[in-house]
Amino acid sequence: MTARRELIIQGVLAALAAVPGLALPPLRQPNADPTSYPALKIDDLGHTKLESDATHSLYRLRLMVSGYVQGGTEAATDAALNELYGDVVRAVMVDPQLGGLCDLIDEGDLEREVSALSSRSTGAMDLMLFIEFRTRTHNPDLI
Q: Would 76 be classed as within a structural domain?
């Protein structure tokens, strides 16, 4: 069986694939910066056990969604980064329970940066997602 947290990560990746205009499908923990823009990646930052009893455990999974854009000017890049942020939130929140895989998805902090490092301005954002889910105690595959 596949662990519930893995199914949730796959569900978030599928939701992010619906973001319009991406150069490539969203990546999972890539080792290199993107070469095509706009781009998305997610990083699994682990989970915290919130509560547990004899039959079920409740966890909070932390996923970082990173987005990258390029534009001709810093103002254009800033606007594109804001648009990408909105597209990401809308895509993930279409089904905030991922078809019953989780109890809820909650948007956390957003960090962003726009800089002119070359002839084109580049923008990057990191958006934390908190995802609460349940499993059977001592069995991460089952609910």
A: yes
Q: What average pLDDT values come out for the chain (143 residues) when binned by 10 residues?
A: 91 97 90 87 96 95 96 90 98 97 97 81 96 93 75
pLDDT of residue 117: 65
**What is the domain-level CATH number for residue 120?**
3.30.2000.10
For residue 78 the two structure tokens come to: 């800033």
b/e per residue, 79-91, with b = 16+ CB within 10 A? ebbeebbebbbeb
Cis before 38 (ω within 30): yes
Question: Which amino acid, 129?
Answer: L
Tokens 């547990």, located at residue = 52
pLDDT for residue 126: 97
Task: Quote the pLDDT of residue 33.
Answer: 78
Task: Identify the DSSP state of 98.
Answer: G
C-alpha neighbours within 13 Å on the C-beta side of residue 76: 8
User: Encoding tokens for residue 137?
Assistant: 């105690």
Quote the DSSP letter at residue 79.
H
Domain of residue 49, residue span: 4-136
Helix, strand, or coil (residue 45): strand
